[in-house]
Design brief:
By secondary structure, this protein is mainly alpha-helical. It is built from 14 helices and no strands.
Amino acid sequence: MPTIEDKKRLVRRLAGGGRGFAEQYGFRTTNNPASLFQLLCLAVLLSRRGDARRAIAAARALQVHGWDSAARLARSTPAERVGLLRDCGLRAGSEQTADTLGELAQAVVDRYRGDLRRLRVVAARDADRERALLTELPGVDDTAVVLFLREVQALWAEVPPVADRRALAAARRLGLGRSADDLAGLAGSGRSERLAWLVGALARVDLEQRYPEVTGQAIPAP
């Protein structure tokens, strides 16, 4: 079992890059309407079953295609969205996913004028209410909420420590704990941004199976 100093050293290595999961794949994590909507689209795509790398590629393609805000994506046609998803390798269920993304964009425009910061205002910065309002949006299930808040905890101080399934799997295998609170303790009190970096790095380690690179030796799967 690693000592507390071993854990802290590993946390410094993982969080030392100063980037969360989304940032490591080219998404900006800033508290502005376009960035927040892109993070939500990424979360929705990642929450669906299938190849996570293709989901990330599809979310990036939305940016490149100019559909980087709720208003712009809402103006796209279903056929255009289907074509983009299929070009990124997301062929199974592409029509349903395309419809969901369009409905999500339109809902954010209609309810929050394209700005998820307004959702935060409506929720009065209450984390439980924010979760509830997010799940009322098309395509946003509990898994997508966790993936979205994994990134947004660096921006919205009211969000409690959040770690997704991949991050927790990596934390267990690396001996860093079994819960988001365990990771928050290692990241340091009042360091929500550092926690987001740590959780994001752990999720990437699990996604890319980079355990030998992180530890210098192979770690058997549980």
